[in-house]
Amino acid sequence: MTTTTAASAEPGERTVRKSSPGAARGPRRTGRIKRIGLPYLLLLPALVLELLVHLVPMVIGIVMSFKELTQFYIRDWGTAPWAGFDNYSVSVHFDEPVGEALLHSFFVTIGFTLLSVGLCWLIGTAAAIYMQDNFVGRGVLRALFLVPYALPVYAAVITWVFMFQHDNGLVNHVLHDQLGITDKPSFWLIGDNSFYALLTVSVWKGWPFAFLIVMAGLQNIPGELYEAAALDGAGLWQQLRRITLPSLRPVNQVLVLVLFLWTFNDFNTPFVLFGKTAPESADLISVHIYQASFVTWNFGTGSAMSVLLLLFLLVVTGVYLLLTSRGRKTADV
Amino acid sequence: MNPGAVIAPSGKGTEAAMRRIRAAAAGAVTITLLTAATACGGGSSDGGSNASPKTLTYWASNQGASIEIDKKTLAPELAKFEKQTGIKVKLEVVPWSDLLNRILTATTSGQGPDVLNIGNTWSASLQATGALLPWDAKNFDKIGGKDRFVDSALGSTGAEGKDPAAVPLYSMAYALYYNKQMFADAGIKNPPATWDELIADGKKISKNGKWGLGAEGSNASENIHHAFVFAKQHGADFFTADGKADFTNDGVVAAVKQYVDLMAKDKIIAPGNAEYAQNQSVSDFAKGKNAMLLWQSAAANLKSQGMADDAYGIAPVPVQSGTPGTGTNVNSMVAGINLAVFKNTKNLDGATKFVKFMTSDAEQKILNGAYTSIPPVKTAQTDTAFNSPSNAVLKDTLAKSAAALPQVADESQFETAVGTAIKGLFADAAGGRAVTTASVKAALEKAQQQMPKK
Fold this sequence. Notes:
CATH superfamily of the largest domain in chain A: MetI-like
Low-confidence stretches of chain B: 1-14, 28-46
Number of strands of chain A: 0
Strand order of the largest sheet of chain B: 2-1-3-10-4
Number of domains of chain A: 2
Distance between the termini of chain A: 12 Å
Strand content of chain B: 5-15%
Radius of gyration of chain A: 26 Å
Structural class of chain A: mainly alpha
Radius of gyration of chain B: 26 Å
CATH topology of the largest domain in chain A: MetI-like fold
Mean pLDDT of chain A: 85
CATH class of the largest domain in chain A: Mainly Alpha
Low-confidence stretches of chain A: 1-24
Largest sheet of chain B: 5 strands, mixed
CATH architecture of the largest domain in chain A: Orthogonal Bundle
Number of helices of chain B: 18
Structural class of chain B: alpha/beta
Strand content of chain A: under 5%
Oligomer: heterodimer
Number of strands of chain B: 11
Order of helices and strands of chain B: HEHEHEHHHEEHHEHHHEHEEEHHHHEHH
Mean pLDDT of chain B: 87
Order of helices and strands of chain A: HHHHHHHHHHHHHH
């Protein structure tokens, strides 16, 4: 897809651009303004709502992060004293308990996100490739695979909570009672194992999305490519490496980014799984920030942590997009 | 140039679409993220008014076995109130897991109920927010005066020296519930009066899948309630006299360790209880899995789970030695529910009338009877209905050997920080890790560092 696409993209854009100076000449100018203005006019309501719904709360959030917003002031934010960068310095003093806990939570989240996204992508892609060939029951299987993604989060995760229970949970019943893998029933919702419990649920819930997107991406790869490759003597593995994966590149690029952001920010899964305070080994940053603000009633620090998280994710996303798009351009030439 | 390029081939379409999606994704980061940073809208500082005198919104805490049962219990009483005053009360029963957050959100936004139930231990914390109507002498006069209420209940209505932030509604105390049949099977004649006896009895019972005692290891509030009593019994407090957090003094460390040791060392609590937070230990007790339970006013709950009243006995919570009393022989917190008026109410008169109604002798008898709690109103407490043997234990405890949790502004944070630390210690005990004085102290130290600095 690479070479043809790049060659066609450039002239295409130029053609569009060329048409506009021509229209600007003479008395048709007002008409042109109208023509150009209309889309913006139509966009205006959406823009205003966007500002109202997204930007205003964001700005308030940032303002909050500079205030000492504790229980004594939440009733009337205006009276909360300005804290300058105090909330930030508390959050980033990593040798102090608050900063240390935040950093710990940050690393847990990074590890968790990398593993979860990696596994989601791997399982989703593998499943999508297996589902490419036509066989009896393919439709049923595809539908079945999507169930975890379609289920409401709460219903799905609370079911996992029951399965992970120490005394009556299905997981221990299978691992311990039936297979005898562990010498005694393990704890999944407290202690160190909770990381794996969280990872399991996250992957279980996330991979169908990867499956869906990759499956859609696969439909776009022309069958002739595989036929030609087969004629040239390429095996399955080579076809996968040389045709499937490169063709899926733009799809994967977005998929991985979206999965990364969703997983990094996931609040529902750990919250339903562990409640208001997560075990240390599974202390994801979203729940950590929630705890920092709602449980200790210190909304200023919570906001400061959120803003830091926002900055981090903006940087990650920016660098990611820069690297991947640069990679794409060089590949295109 | 390639003329075919004008008609965009599908490859270009995908590219453009991808670029758009990428831009959208970048936008999405910005958007999804700061939703986390923003809580709810602005607050308002105006006081109450009488702008809407015909309706009231009432948030009730979940006192019965379920929210549905609570609605059924309260509905006829609210109908009575409407008949008397013409004010319609909109009832919402809020689960305990949400109540404090809901109140905080209401405080922040200024949009809340008119009248609400609060856990009495939160009184001082919520008082500090200024969201609740202070009960000064004038307000108390409207509901019949402060001296209608028992002192121990009034001791849990806010910081000392300030007007109470709420009035007592239901009083409760911890007691030891024991399964008579299981005690008889193990050859135990009398319920234990000291912790040593409780451990000895527990060891007799803890075998063959049965356990001596139940606990809610992952429930921060339950952990705090027990740790507080153990601390008192060690002559220690979690706060210094001037209200500073002091979680690592020897008495507190010993107290927390003694509580967790019931699972870690004495092994009379099933390890699985370490992850309990939804009253599973009450169900276990009702099903005969645990022979003992330390709980507040459990009778109604046990009944709804199918346990007959005569299947269990109620005794005072054990002490280190001697009999329950004051000082180091405290054996319960002053548990209970307070009724508060939201300062931003649009129906101040109606709200006050409602508080008067709910604390009237008649309603106190009906509601405390239904919830098997003790009326904090003196005249209602003397009713014969509250003189049954089980209620006698609770009443006695409240009158003689219960102490109020610290009435400090940071109480709520204390509950969370220390309660969570104990949850972690239970997790250690359940996972087979050693629980030592050093590890307890380290956990408490960490909790103390999380407390607000001043």
